[in-house]
Amino acid sequence: MQLADFLRHELQALGTHVGCEHGICGACTVLLDGVPARSCLTYAVQADGCSVETVEGLSEDGELNGLQQSFLRHGALQCGFCTAGILMSTTAFLRENQAPAEEQVKHMLSGHICRCTGYQSIVEAILDYVRHR
Amino acid sequence: MKPVAFAYLRAQSVEEACHALGREGDAARILAGGQSLSAMLNMRIVTPSLLIDINGIGALDFIEENEGGIVTGATVRQAAALRNLSIVKKVPLLAAALPHVGHYQTRGRGTLAGSVAHADPSAEIPLVLTVLGGGVELASRRRRRQVPAREFFISALTTRRAPDEMIVSLRWPPASANDFYGFKEIALRAGDYALVAAACHASQAAAGALGQFTIGFGGCGDHPQIVAHPFSSCTLSAAGVKDLAAETARVVECRSDLHASAAYRRHLAGFLCEELMREALAFFKKGRDCGSVGA
Questions:
Q1: Staple B127 to which of A121, B27, B66, B224, CB 3.0 to 4.6 Å?
Q2: Closest CA to B256 of B217, B219, B225
Q3: Where residue B67 sits, what CATH number does that domain have?
Q4: What is the DSSP letter of B196?
Q5: What's the total number of domains in chain A?
Q6: What CATH number is attached to the domain comprising A101?
Q7: Chain A contact set for B39 (CB, 8 A)
Q8: pTM for this one?
């Protein structure tokens, strides 16, 4: 069973979405031991003994975290299908990069496909969050 | 889609993995990063009855230096290689190519050896290994053996690895000080499969003159193709570069597919070759002007 299906159907953690099921679209991205992983390309059994972070874990006490709030302010999501994967990638990326340049953010985002926003609002949301965190 | 049902073995050692491979042969597949294999399983392009997960084999997770160069174990992640100081210093061509491999989101799981085993025609890691003249170490129940990279890749997704063999390590020859290493790629989007990728290694003869220029192309044909030019010691002119690049592109086998025609690939090969030649010449000229050059 894919980790994506395990999260969604066994754990009822529906925040992680399944798009292409071959690792390209990025909608299924979660963090496995802190490292971005395509949950459609990972088997649930492989997560045994690992930490798995999903979008559900970003909000503390039911409040959206600073990154999520920046996404809201900047219109960095419309249908929201790609959003969870992008939030998880960005979370890992910003743990390693304190003050990324716009080009670095765009390079990181190239591993995600968004049908709605045109990406610019996502880039701005991330950069704005970095400036104020 | 979902894969056809399979049995799963988390191997604790190379011996255990080889034993299972030897028993099942074609029906088993080694699972490392899964960035290539799991996609094929999901699409049912391959339908193994057994997956042998090698991620838990600690003995395969190493990056070591010896007189032959840098040796990377089979489970070394692309992201780890990108961060590794030995690789950045001693295998700069690989360090230059890795940002083009997949995406940030795949490099934390994808492995160097997995890309080599998968042997996609446009893959960057097989191309670099081939240009550098590196090697692949294979293990099976029967034996261990080294295969030179230049003999390893046969055609699309096809290598010299027998069904009962697994890659245990890759050998990367170290950079020669004062030599030039360059990597360029053209893809429809950054991070997409390369339409054409070019990796080159150039050395000086006398000061300021090109001694040898070896360039490899990925994505043109069905496996990495090397073209080597030994130069006589004269400085190549700008016009000479253009002609030599066009001549190089002419001998490269190019294929057409839904992303690019053979003619366009040939054009890209010539273009990238010309750019890399210019960069090599500028690199050596700068060295001559400054009196010191580094790889």
A1: B224
A2: B219
A3: 3.30.465.10
A4: E
A5: 1
A6: 1.10.150.120
A7: 22-23, 41
A8: 0.95
